[in-house]
Backbone:
C-alpha cells in the first residue's frame, strides 16, 4: 500500500470527467464575476483587439465625463465599461466550467509512492513525481498506478472510473492491445509490472487538466481567420468614425466625441468579439462532457470538415458478436428438430454465439434451456476440429464450420443431404456465417450466424450522407460478407480483408483527393493510420501507441462517438459564423439610431432638421438614442452567453437548409432585432425619466 | 417605352457577348487561340519570355508594377514635352508637372480622371501616343490580374499563375484591338470625328464671333474609351458632345461596349474554373445590383429636381437639366449608372445636375467598389474578393472550413481579401477628410453645404475607385487635388491588385476539396443573396455616414445651398 494522500471518493468521480453542470452553476457564476474584473487588465485586453478598442473608448469617455460632467457622458462611460465586463464574463464563464472539471481531475492526481524495480529485481519506494520514462514499477491489488505506462508483465483488473466514469473494472494485460494503463487508476487484483511512459506533468491526466482548463489553448485555424476578419471589420470603422469629425466640421456641425466613441463601439463587431473565445472554450468543454479528449482545438475543427469516416465494423457498425438469426433444416428435418439439437449443442458453449443459439431456439420454439446432466460432456471448439458440441453418453452432437462437420459426418459413415451445400452457400453469400449441426451421422441443418447491425446506425449514416460525409466500413471479413453488411448498415463503401497497410493506403488516397479523413482505432497496428488521419480517435482501452498517435481519445472507448465528434466540430463553426453574421447585421439598426443623433444639428434651417427623417425608430432624443444603442450593444452580449456556451442548434441536414436557417435567424433576424430592442430601451429610458 | 426597348436590346446583346465573348476570352487566356502567333512570337522574343515561362504571383506582381511604373513615366514624359513633339496642330504647350502626374497616373490606373479639357490641353500626339495607348494597356493589365486570380481557383498544387507579359499581349491583340477596331468604324461611320487636321475656325454670323471648333482622332479613341472601361474622352464634354457620341446608336453602342467585357468575364471565370454555373452566379449578383441601381437612378432622374420643384417649377419630362435632349432622362441615367458601376466614368450628361438621389445612385455605385459589373478585370477580381468574404461567413454558418470552388478559404486568404476590401473605403474616406479639412481642399468645390461636400466626396470616390467620372463642380486642376487624386488612384488600383494576385498565388498552391452534399453551395440563389448582402453591408456601413452628410441631407432638406 503506497497511497499517501486520500484517494478520490467515488462520489466525486461518478460520471467521470464529464460531470454535467447547469449552465449557470452558482459557484462558477460567482467565480466568473470575480474573474470579469480581473480580466480588465489592459495587458489581457490587448489580446482581443475588438474589446480593447471598447476599453480605450471607455477611457476617452471617462476623461470627457470628468472634463464635462453630465449624466449622459457618465452613462455612456458606465455602459462601455460594462460592455468590456460582459465580454470578460462570457469568457470567464466558459473557463469556469472547464476549471470545475479540472478540479475534479486534480483530486485524483494524488501524491503516490511507487514501487520501483531496481535492475537487480529488488523494489524501492520512490515518490511518483520522481519517476522517469522507462522506469519499471510494480503494482498490486489496491495500488494506485503512479503514472502512465505500459504493462510488460502480468494481467490485472483495473478500476478506471476515475477517468472514464465507468465503474466496472477493466482487464489490462501485457502484450496485445490492452496493455496501456493510466496514472491515477487503481489496480483491483493481481500483480503487474508497468514500464513508465510519461513523466509527471505530461501524464494523461495532466494533459486532460490543461485541456479542460484551456490553459494553453491555441487558436484554431478558422478562429484565426475569423479574428482577422473581425480585425478588418474593426479597422475599417476607425477611419469611418474619425473622418466624421472633419466631415461634420465641413457641414458646420461640431461632433460630440462621446457620440463618436459610442458609434465606433456600436459598429465594431463587439458581440462576436466578446463571445469568440467563450465559444471555443465551450466547444472543447462539450467534447469533454461526452468523455472525449481532444489534444488540440485544431482536431475539433477538423472534425467538422471531415468528409470520410473510416469505421471499424465490429463494435462500431455491428454489435461485437455474431448472433444466431435463423435455422435452416436440411434433409427433411423439421425446423423444430434442428433448433432443439442446435440448442443442445450450444448448452455448454459460453461464447456469445453459443448463447445466441440457445436464446434463438427459446424465442422461436419455446425450447427451454436444459440443465447439463452428469453424462453430458462438453466438447470445446479447437482450431483443428473447428467445431464444438456435446456428448450425451454415446450420442455425439456437433455444430461447426460447414466443411468440418461434413467431413466429420462422412468419416463417421454418414452422408451429407443433397440440399446442404446450396443452403450453406446461400447463407455465406448473404454475409452470414453458416454453422452446420449434426447429430451423430445425421446432418439436421444450418444455423445462420449473422452480424447484428447496431440499432439506429443506418439512420445515423443517412444523416452523415446528408451532411456530405462518406462512411467507409473497415473489416477483416471477406468481400462477400463485407458487402452484405455494408448494404444492411447503409455505409457508402467498405474495405474488406483490411490490413493496416490497406487502411493506411485508403487514408492516403482520400487525402490526396483533398478529403479530410477521420477514423477510430485502438491497436498498436492502428497507430500509423491514426497519425495519418486528420482526426484520429483512439480508444481509451487501446495501447499507448494508439493514444499517442491519435489526436483525440475517447474515454468511453465507443467508436460510434466519432459521429458525435463531427457534429460538435460543425456546431463550433456554425456558432461562430452565426454570431458573426448577427453582429454585423446589428450595425444597420445602430446606424439609424446614432447617425440622426450625431448630425441632428446639421443644416438646420427654420427648425427643419433634415436628418431627423433618418430617425425611423422615432427615438426620444439624440442622447437617449445613442445611449439605447450602447445599452443594447452591451446587453446583447449577456443575452447571447447561453447560446455561445451551448452552441447554435445543429441539425444534421444538408448544407443548403442549414445555411438558409442560419441566414434567416442570424442575418435577417440580426437586422430586425436591434430595431425592436433599441426602441424598447429608449422607451424604458424615457419612462424612467432619464430623458 | 423607348427606355425599355433599349434595356431589352442591351440585355440580348450583352447575353450574346457574355456567352461567346466570355468563352472566347477563356480560350485566349488558356492559350488556345493562335491566329496571331506571328505577332505574338516576336513580342515574346523581344521581352525574353514565352508562354511556357510561368510566373509565381510575386513575379507576376513584380512584372505588373514594373510595367505600370514605366507606363506612368512614359506618359508623364510625353505630356511634359508635348510642345516639342509632332502632331500638335494646335500648338499646345507642355503640360504642368502636377497635372501630368495626375493624368499619367489616371490613365495608367484605368481611371481616366481628367483635370483638364482635352481640346485645350493635349496635343494629338499626347492623345494618341500617351493616353490612347494607356486606354488599351490599362484594361489589359486589369484583365490579366483577374485571369491570374481565376487561375488560382482553376489550378491545383501549382506554384505559378500565368505569365503577365503573355497575358497582356494576348489580351491586347486577340481581344481589345479587334473589338475596338470594329467599334471605332461604327463610331466614325455614325459621325464621330476622326481626323488629324486640327481645328477649324469660322465666323459665327449670328452671334458675331469667331468660333474655333476642335477636332481630332476622336472616333477610334471613343471605341477603346468605352470598351476598356476607361472613360477619358478626347473632348472635355466627353460623350455629351456629338463629336464623340453623335447619335442614339453610338450612345447605345457606348453603353454596350463598356458593359460587355466586365459582364463576359464572369463567363470566362466560369469556363476556366470548370463551372459556368459559378460564373453565372456572380453574373446574377452583378445583374441584380446593376438593375436595382439603374432602376433607382432612372426613377430619380425621371422626377423633378427637388431644388427646382421647391421653386414651383415642374418639368413634365423628368430632370433634364444638364442632359442631352437626344438621349433623354432615363437613358442618360442608364448611361451614367453603366459608366459609374463599371470603372469607365465617361459621361453623356452633367452628373452634377442629376437630382441629389440620382447623384447618390452614381456615387454609391462606385462606393460599392465597382463590382456590378465593375471595370475590365477589376470588376471580376473585386467581386471575387467579396465572394471570398461571403464564402467565409457562409461557410462558417454551415460548420465547414469555408471553401470556394474547392479551395479552402483560410487565414491568409481572409487577410488578403480583407486588405483588398479595406483599401478603397479607407483611402477614399481619409483623402476626403484631408480635402475638407484643408483650405486648398475646401477651395475646390463650386458649391457650399452638402452639395459641395458631395462634389469633393464624389471626385475622390471616383479616383479611389479608378472610375474617373466627375460630378463636375470640383476644380481639380490644382496642385493639391492633382497630387491627392494621384495618390488616391494609385492606392485604389495597386493596393488592391497586389493582394488580389497574392490570393491567386495562395489559392493556386492549394489542393481541391471535392464537392459533397455538405459543401457550402456557391452556385445558387442563396449565394447570390449572400454576396449581395456582404457587398451592401460593407459598402453601406462604410459610406453611410459620409453620404448622409452629402446627397441624403441635400435631398431631405429640399433646400438650395448654392
Residues:
Amino acid at each position: 500500500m503506497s497511497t499517501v494522500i486520500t484517494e478520490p471518493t467515488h462520489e466525486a468521480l461518478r460520471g467521470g470527467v464529464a460531470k454535467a453542470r447547469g449552465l449557470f452553476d452558482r459557484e462558477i457564476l460567482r467565480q466568473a464575476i470575480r474573474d470579469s474584473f480581473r480580466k480588465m487588465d489592459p495587458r489581457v485586453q490587448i489580446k482581443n483587439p475588438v474589446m480593447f478598442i471598447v476599453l480605450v473608448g471607455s477611457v476617452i469617455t471617462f476623461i470627457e465625463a470628468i472634463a464635462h460632467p453630465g449624466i449622459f457622458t457618465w452613462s455612456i462611460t458606465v455602459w462601455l465599461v460594462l460592455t468590456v465586463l460582459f465580454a470578460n464574463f462570457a469568457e470567464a464563464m466558459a473557463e469556469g466550467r472547464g476549471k470545475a472539471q479540472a478540479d475534479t481531475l486534480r483530486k485524483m492526481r494524488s501524491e503516490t509512492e511507487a514501487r520501483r524495480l531496481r535492475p537487480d529485481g529488488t523494489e524501492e519506494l520512490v515518490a511518483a513525481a520522481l519517476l522517469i520514462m522507462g522506469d519499471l514499477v510494480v503494482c498490486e491489488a489496491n495500488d494506485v498506478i503512479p503514472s502512465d505506462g505500459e504493462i510488460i508483465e502480468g494481467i490485472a483488473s483495473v478500476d478506471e472510473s476515475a477517468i472514464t466514469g465507468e465503474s466496472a473494472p477493466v482487464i489490462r494485460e501485457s502484450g496485445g492491445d490492452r496493455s496501456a494503463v493510466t496514472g491515477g487508476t487503481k489496480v483491483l487484483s493481481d500483480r503487474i509490472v508497468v514500464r513508465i511512459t510519461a513523466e509527471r506533468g505530461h501524464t494523461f491526466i495532466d494533459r486532460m487538466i490543461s485541456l479542460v482548463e484551456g490553459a494553453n489553448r491555441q487558436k484554431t485555424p478558422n478562429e484565426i481567420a475569423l479574428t482577422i476578419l473581425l480585425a478588418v471589420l474593426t479597422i475599417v470603422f476607425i477611419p469611418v468614425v474619425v473622418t466624421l469629425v472633419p466631415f461634420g466640421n465641413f457641414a458646420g456641425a461640431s461632433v460630440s466625441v462621446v457620440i463618436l466613441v459610442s458609434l465606433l463601439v456600436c459598429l465594431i463587431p463587439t458581440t462576436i468579439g466578446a463571445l469568440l473565445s467563450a465559444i471555443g472554450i465551450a466547444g472543447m468543454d462539450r467534447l469533454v462532457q461526452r468523455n472525449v479528449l481532444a489534444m488540440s482545438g485544431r482536431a475539433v475543427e477538423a472534425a467538422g470538415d471531415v468528409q470520410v469516416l473510416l469505421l471499424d465494423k465490429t463494435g462500431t457498425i455491428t454489435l461485437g458478436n455474431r448472433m444466431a438469426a435463423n435455422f435452416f433444416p436440411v434433409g427433411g428435418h423439421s425446423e423444430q428438430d434442428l433448433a432443439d439439437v442446435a440448442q443442445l449443442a450450444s448448452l455448454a458453449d459460453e461464447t456469445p454465439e453459443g448463447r445466441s443459439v440457445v436464446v434463438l431456439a427459446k424465442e422461436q420454439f419455446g425450447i427451454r434451456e436444459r440443465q447439463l446432466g452428469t453424462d453430458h460432456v462438453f466438447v470445446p471448439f479447437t482450431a483443428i476440429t473447428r467445431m464444438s458440441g456435446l456428448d450425451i453418453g454415446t450420442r455425439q452432437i456437433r455444430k461447426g464450420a460447414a466443411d468440418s462437420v461434413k467431413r466429420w459426418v462422412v468419416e463417421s459413415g454418414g452422408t451429407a443431404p443433397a440440399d446442404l451445400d446450396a443452403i450453406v452457400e446461400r447463407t455465406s453469400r448473404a454475409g452470414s456465417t453458416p454453422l452446420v449441426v449434426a447429430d451423430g451421422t445425421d446432418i439436421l441443418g444450418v444455423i445462420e450466424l449473422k452480424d447484428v447491425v447496431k440499432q439506429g446506425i443506418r439512420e445515423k449514416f443517412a444523416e452523415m450522407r446528408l451532411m456530405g460525409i462518406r462512411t467507409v466500413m473497415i473489416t477483416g471479413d471477406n468481400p462477400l460478407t463485407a458487402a452484405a453488411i455494408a448494404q444492411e448498415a447503409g455505409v457508402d463503401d467498405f474495405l474488406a480483408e483490411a490490413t493496416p497497410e490497406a487502411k493506411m493506403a485508403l487514408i492516403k488516397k482520400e487525402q490526396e483527393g483533398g478529403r479530410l479523413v477521420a477514423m477510430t482505432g485502438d491497436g498498436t497496428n492502428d497507430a500509423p493510420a491514426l497519425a495519418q488521419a486528420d482526426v484520429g480517435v483512439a480508444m481509451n482501452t487501446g495501447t499507448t501507441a494508439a493514444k499517442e498517435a491519435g489526436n483525440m481519445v475517447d474515454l468511453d472507448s465507443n467508436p460510434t462517438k466519432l459521429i458525435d465528434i463531427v457534429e460538435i466540430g460543425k456546431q463550433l463553426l456554425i456558432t461562430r459564423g452565426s454570431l458573426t453574421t448577427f453582429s454585423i447585421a446589428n450595425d444597420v439598426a445602430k446606424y439609424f439610431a446614432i447617425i440622426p443623433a450625431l448630425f441632428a444639428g446639421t443644416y438646420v434651417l427654420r427648425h427643419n432638421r433634415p436628418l431627423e427623417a433618418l430617425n425611423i425608430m422615432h427615438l426620444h432624443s439624440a442622447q437617449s438614442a445613442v445611449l439605447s444603442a450602447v445599452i443594447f450593444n452591451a446587453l446583447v452580449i449577456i443575452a447571447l452567453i447561453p447560446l455561445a456556451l451551448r452552441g447554435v442548434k445543429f441539425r444534421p441536414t444538408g448544407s443548403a437548409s442549414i445555411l438558409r436557417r442560419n441566414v434567416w435567424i442570424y442575418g435577417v433576424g440580426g437586422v430586425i432585432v436591434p430595431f425592436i430592442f433599441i426602441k424598447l430601451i429608449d422607451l424604458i429610458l424615457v419612462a424612467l425619466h432619464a430623458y | 417605352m423607348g427606355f425599355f426597348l433599349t434595356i431589352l436590346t442591351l440585355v440580348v446583346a450583352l447575353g450574346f457577348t457574355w456567352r461567346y465573348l466570355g468563352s472566347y476570352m477563356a480560350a485566349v487566356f488558356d492559350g488556345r487561340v493562335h491566329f496571331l502567333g506571328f505577332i505574338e512570337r516576336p513580342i515574346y522574343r523581344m521581352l525574353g519570355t514565352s508562354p511556357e515561362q510561368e510566373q509565381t504571383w510575386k513575379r507576376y506582381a513584380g512584372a505588373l508594377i514594373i510595367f505600370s511604373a514605366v507606363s506612368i513615366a512614359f506618359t508623364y514624359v510625353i505630356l511634359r514635352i508635348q510642345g516639342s513633339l509632332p502632331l500638335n496642330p494646335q500648338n499646345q504647350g507642355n503640360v504642368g508637372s502636377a497635372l501630368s502626374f495626375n493624368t499619367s497616373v489616371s490613365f495608367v490606373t484605368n481611371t481616366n480622371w481628367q483635370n483638364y479639357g482635352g481640346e485645350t490641353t493635349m496635343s494629338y500626339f499626347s492623345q494618341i501616343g500617351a493616353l490612347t495607348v494607356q486606354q488599351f494597356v490599362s484594361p489589359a493589365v486589369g484583365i490579366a490580374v483577374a485571369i491570374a486570380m481565376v487561375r488560382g481557383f482553376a489550378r491545383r498544387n501549382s506554384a505559378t499563375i500565368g505569365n503577365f507579359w503573355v497575358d497582356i499581349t494576348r489580351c491586347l491583340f486577340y481581344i481589345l484591338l479587334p473589338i475596338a477596331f470594329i467599334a471605332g468604324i461604327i463610331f466614325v461611320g455614325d459621325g464621330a470625328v476622326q481626323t488629324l487636321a486640327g481645328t477649324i475656325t469660322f465666323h459665327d454670323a449670328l452671334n458675331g464671333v469667331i468660333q474655333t471648333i476642335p477636332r481630332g482622332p476622336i472616333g477610334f479613341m471613343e471605341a477603346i474609351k468605352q470598351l476598356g472601361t476607361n472613360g477619358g474622352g478626347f473632348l472635355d464634354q466627353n460623350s455629351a458632345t456629338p463629336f464623340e457620341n453623335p447619335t442614339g446608336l453610338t450612345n447605345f453602342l457606348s453603353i454596350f461596349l463598356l458593359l460587355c467585357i466586365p459582364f463576359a468575364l464572369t463567363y470566362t471565370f466560369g469556363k476556366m474554373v470548370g463551372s459556368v454555373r459559378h460564373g453565372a452566379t456572380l453574373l446574377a449578383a452583378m445583374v441584380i445590383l446593376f438593375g436595382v441601381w439603374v432602376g433607382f437612378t432612372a426613377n430619380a432622374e425621371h422626377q423633378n429636381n427637388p431644388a427646382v420643384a421647391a421653386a414651383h417649377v415642374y418639368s413634365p419630362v423628368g430632370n433634364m437639366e444638364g442632359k442631352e435632349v437626344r438621349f433623354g432622362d432615363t437613358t442618360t441615367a442608364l448611361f451614367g449608372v453603366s459608366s459609374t458601376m463599371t470603372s469607365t466614368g465617361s459621361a453623356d450628361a452633367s452628373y452634377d445636375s442629376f437630382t441629389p438621389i440620382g447623384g447618390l445612385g452614381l456615387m454609391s455605385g462606385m462606393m460599392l467598389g465597382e463590382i456590378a459589373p465593375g471595370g475590365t478585370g477589376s470588376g471580376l477580381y473585386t467581386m471575387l474578393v467579396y465572394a471570398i468574404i461571403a464564402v467565409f461567413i457562409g461557410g462558417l454558418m454551415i460548420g465547414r472550413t469555408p471553401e470556394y470552388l474547392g479551395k479552402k478559404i483560410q487565414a491568409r486568404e481572409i487577410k488578403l481579401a480583407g486588405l483588398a476590401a479595406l483599401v478603397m473605403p479607407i483611402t477614399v474616406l481619409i483623402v476626403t477628410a484631408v480635402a475638407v479639412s484643408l483650405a486648398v481642399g475646401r477651395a475646390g468645390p463650386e458649391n457650399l453645404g452638402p452639395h459641395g461636400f458631395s462634389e469633393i466626396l464624389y471626385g475622390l470616390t471616383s479616383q479611389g475607385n479608378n472610375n474617373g467620372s466627375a460630378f463636375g463642380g470640383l476644380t481639380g486642376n490644382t496642385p493639391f487635388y492633382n497630387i491627392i487624386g494621384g495618390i488616391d488612384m494609385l492606392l485604389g488600383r495597386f493596393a488592391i491588385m497586389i493582394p488580389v494576385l497574392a490570393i491567386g498565388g495562395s489559392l493556386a498552391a492549394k489542393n481541391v476539396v471535392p464537392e459533397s452534399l455538405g459543401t457550402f453551395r456557391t452556385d445558387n440563389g442563396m449565394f447570390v443573396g449572400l454576396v449581395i448582402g456582404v457587398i451592401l453591408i460593407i459598402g453601406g456601413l462604410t459610406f453611410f455616414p459620409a453620404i448622409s452628410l452629402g446627397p441624403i441631407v441635400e435631398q431631405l432638406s429640399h433646400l438650395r445651398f448654392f
Summary: The radius of gyration of chain A is 34 Å. Residues 1-20 of chain A have pLDDT under 50 and may be disordered. Chain A touches chain B through 80 residues (CB under 8 Å). The first helix of chain A runs from residue 10 to 13.
